[in-house]
Amino acid sequence: MEEKLIKVWNEDFTIAKSKKIIEDSFASINDKNEITLVVEDSKINPEDIIESDKGWKLITFNMILDFSTVGFISKISSALAEANISIFVISSYSTDHVLIKKENLDKALIVLKNLEVDLK
Q: pLDDT tens across 53-75, in order?
C-alpha cells in the first residue's frame, strides 16, 4: 500500500496555553512567555490549562522537506487564506503540519487537492 502524502489524524486537538508541559502532547513550545501545547482533546486536564481553543484537526505532510525548500508552507497557507481558512502551523525537523478547524477540514482538503498535494 502506498503511503499518503497527507495524513489527516483521526483525533481532535486542542491548542492551549498551559501551566506545564503535558507529556503526551503532539507538540509543546516553551518560550520565554508561555507554554503552548498541541494536544489531543482526551489528554487535557483542565486544571493545567490557562486558555485553550478546541476543535482542531491535524494534517501532516508525509514528505521530508529539506531546509533548502522554499515556499512550501507559503503556497499552502496562501491558498487556504484565499479560501478563508485559518491555520496553525507546526514545523518539525523534516516535516510540516497544519491544524485546521474541524468545520473547515473538508474545504481545506479540496484546496490542497487543487494544489496537487497528493491525497491518494
A: 999 999 999 877 777 777 788 88
Contact between residue 39 and residue 62 where contact means Cβ atoms under 8 Å apart: no
Distance CA 38, CA 55 (A): 11
Rounded to whole angstroms, the Cα distance separating 60 from 22 reads 21
pTM summary value? 0.85
The whole-angstrom separation of Cα 77 and Cα 82 is 9
Q: Is 95 in contact with 62 (CB distance < 8 Å)?
A: yes
Distance CA(11)–CA(114), nearest Å, equals 25
Main-chain dihedrals φ then ψ at residue 51, nearest 5 degrees: -145, 150
Three-class DSSP category at 88: strand
Looking at domain 6-114, which CATH architecture does it have?
Answer: 2-Layer Sandwich (3.30)
Burial label, 68 (beta-carbon count in 10 A; 0-12, 13-18, 19+): exposed
